[in-house]
Amino acid sequence: MLIVLFLLGLIGQTFSQDFLVWTEPATLKVFKDSEPKLGKSRLILQSARNEYESGQIVIRAGANTLKISQVECTPLNGPDKYLIPKENISVRLVAYVLVRHENRFYPDPLPPFRPCEIKAGENQPLFITIYIPKDAKPGRYTGKITVKFENGASVDIPISLEVWDFTLPDKPSCETAFSIWDNSIWKFEEVQAGTPEGKAMFDKYYWCLVEHRISPMQIPVDVLSPEADKYIADERVTSFALNYSDDVEEMRKRVEHLRKKGLLNKAYFYPLDEPVTKEQYEELKRRVEKIKSIDPKLRIVSPFFRGPDFSNETAYEALDGIINIWCAVTSYFDPQKQLEKKLKGEFSWWYVCCGPGSPYANFHITMDAIDHRILMWQQKKYQVDGLLYWGVNYWAGTPDPWEDMATVKDINPNLYGDGSLLYPGKKVGIDGPVSSLRLEMIRDSFEDYEYLTLLEKLAGQEAVERAIKEVVTDMTNFTKDPATLQKARAMIAKEIQTRMHSNFIGR
Length: 507
Fold this sequence. Notes:
- This protein has two domains: 2-167, Immunoglobulins (Immunoglobulin-like, Sandwich); 175-494, TIM Barrel (Alpha-Beta Barrel), CATH 3.20.20.
- Helix content is 29%, strand content 23%.
- The chain has helices at residues 2-7, 182-188, 196-211, 229-232, 248-261, 278-294, 315-318, 335-343, 369-373, 375-381, 437-459, 461-469, 482-505, and strands at residues 19-25, 43-49, 51-61, 66-73, 76-77, 83-84, 89-93, 96-99, 104-107, 116-118, 123-132, 139-149, 154-167, 175-178, 240-242, 267-269, 325-329, 347-352, 386-389, 423-424, 433-434.
- A five-stranded mixed β-sheet has the order 2-13-12-4-10. Strands 1-3-11-7 form a four-stranded antiparallel β-sheet, with helices on one face.
- The N and C termini lie far apart (59 Å).
- Residues 1-16 have low confidence and may be disordered.
């Protein structure tokens, strides 16, 4: 074993138990029985400034159970003595949830590191995330992560980080609308609605999403509250829902309040979800009429997954003149029709939920990690303005999300993780939500979107199309190879830097 470790480039002390260590990209799900990748002994990352970049260190126990007791990080040393402090490096365990119909454990929850045991012959990944500050110097950074074991052994994993010479904006370039289910918070975090503790916990979920470049649909206070500004005026928040009311004057108060504050452009009404029947369409029209009596230009969304069941029209025809945020499920999405709506001054969004499944991209636990990341490349390809998602913590359908992530059993008992991208921290001693591998991939996808948007500003639409073509062909054909995606990102970064440098020289 010592010979194998030497070949891996890992230097440790005396080993009383055998183990292997290697690295993997974040965009890969490592199972308990995934095969080792010999020779991958260094964590190699590339990133812009103001970006979170992740990778995985995988420890495999040998013939005996192995316990990781501690993980230590050094600062990252960069050009001109610039340091990325170790506080910018987070170490999380990759935990597993059982997918019962496959009888297989899938990697998903990412609780903060705590000492843990690895069963003989099994893998335990560590999810390493580095935040690159806005003022970081471009160039190469180096450091290391030391993993210590209860038996006294330890191993160093070198980190090599290349920081590119451009910065991602705080303000996202596309809109998002992800729903938080407050009842799930009250139940699983064991706090009461309407109490200071309950509001503080909702805040933790709210800001967790914002930190992942996601705008929650709901804010924890009325928009008329003096507290509302800290939620909706934050430049990282692109949009939020206004509650529909049959009382037009109540809605008008909130609309005019937001107009005075210059925040009305972020607001939208969501009066009815996925209309299909004649009754649903009639109710949607009735509610929209009330909303438009305040201002016919107010933004209105009503997501759709098929046409009405009482006519031969498509949803694009049936909803014309009713909504102005066109939000189709990705499998029903019509690129040409949505572009036509956008050219009329309306808005093009889309969404995923229980469907579509593979070969489409979505956020289901049983999909490949790259499937959670690819949607924003497709969104840029089809010039879609926003992404809506129905829930980040829908746990009504499960007794315990940590043990059972089949969240929508009434729709599909074999669908895992739908409407749930977070885990309640209470069970594992965390005061707030615990992220998932899927949510980290989604943030990475929004960062990819910023790369493409910056490239578009500097080099035009054709350059963006060339870049996307390396990763995405259409809605059901895209790369499954993390290396291909990373290579495309690096090519985009290189062109961004070249264009920015040329523009600077040309001034």
